[in-house]
């Protein structure tokens, strides 16, 4: 199966290397994206530019499984909204889709036109409990500042057929029960309206493609059956 792997904030497609290798071994055709603004350093890149790049990958694939990590869960949902008939399933790893009108990822400040990787202090706890010093160093070394126009971009969702696409929440540093509670509390309106939501528990932190890449690949493989 074609599988589109979209990295979260500060990450390039290289973060998926080990997961993609295992997916190929399992018979799939993974494509790991390095999004505009991270591949070329263009600070003027916008969220729309990243959506367009992800759509190119969707259009070149055959009804793919679209996987978004962390903030890119919203990007995966955006391309599903734009191509509801072309996406077989959306898998969200450690993240949730923003609703229409919300900001893409307005969490850390924009500095000189970009959002730099803030270091590990904001992520201490369950997010990073499974990352040793070497893994943290590798992730930090590969982190690329994200253009401010991406992080502060406004999410626009227009096609309600997105709610018919099956969605799987892969739960690393939180549990399926946590997510169900957040949905019940009204915190995740897009998931509340989705008609086919399933959950996969993964015992890891926020970056399972680094800490347990083969296990993540096997979870994704199970979603293609």
UniProtKB/TrEMBL annotation:
GO MF: catalytic activity
Ranges where the AB hydrolase-1 domain occurs: 3-218
SUPFAM superfamilies linked to this entry: alpha/beta-Hydrolases
InterPro entries xrefs: AB_hydrolase_1, AB_hydrolase_fold
The name this protein goes by in its record: Pimeloyl-ACP methyl ester carboxylesterase
Taxonomic source organism: Microlunatus parietis
């Amino acid at each position: 199966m074609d599988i589109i792997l979209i990295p979260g904030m500060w990450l390039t497609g290289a973060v998926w290397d080990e997961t993609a290798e295992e997916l190929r071994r399992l018979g799939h055709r993974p494509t790991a994206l390095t999004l505009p603004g991270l591949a070329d350093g263009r600070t003027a890149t916008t969220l729309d530019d990243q959506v367009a790049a992800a759509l190119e990958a969707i259009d070149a694939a055959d009804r793919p499984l679209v996987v978004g990590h962390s903030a890119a869960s919203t990007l995966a949902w955006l391309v599903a909204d734009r191509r509801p008939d072309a996406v077989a399933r959306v898998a969200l790893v450690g993240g949730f889709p923003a609703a229409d009108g919300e900001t893409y990822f307005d969490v850390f400040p924009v500095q000189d036109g970009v959002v730099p990787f803030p270091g590990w202090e904001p992520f201490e706890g369950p997010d990073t409990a499974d990352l040793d010093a070497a893994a943290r160093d590798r992730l930090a070394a590969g982190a690329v500042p994200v253009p401010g126009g991406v992080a502060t971009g406004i999410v626009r969702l227009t096609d309600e057929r997105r709610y018919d696409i099956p969605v799987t929440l892969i739960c690393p540093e939180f549990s399926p029960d946590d997510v169900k509670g957040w949905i019940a509390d009204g915190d995740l309106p897009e998931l509340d309206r989705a008609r086919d939501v399933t959950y996969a528990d993964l015992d890891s932190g926020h970056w399972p493609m680094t800490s347990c890449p083969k296990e993540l690949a096997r979870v994704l493989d199970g979603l293609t059956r």
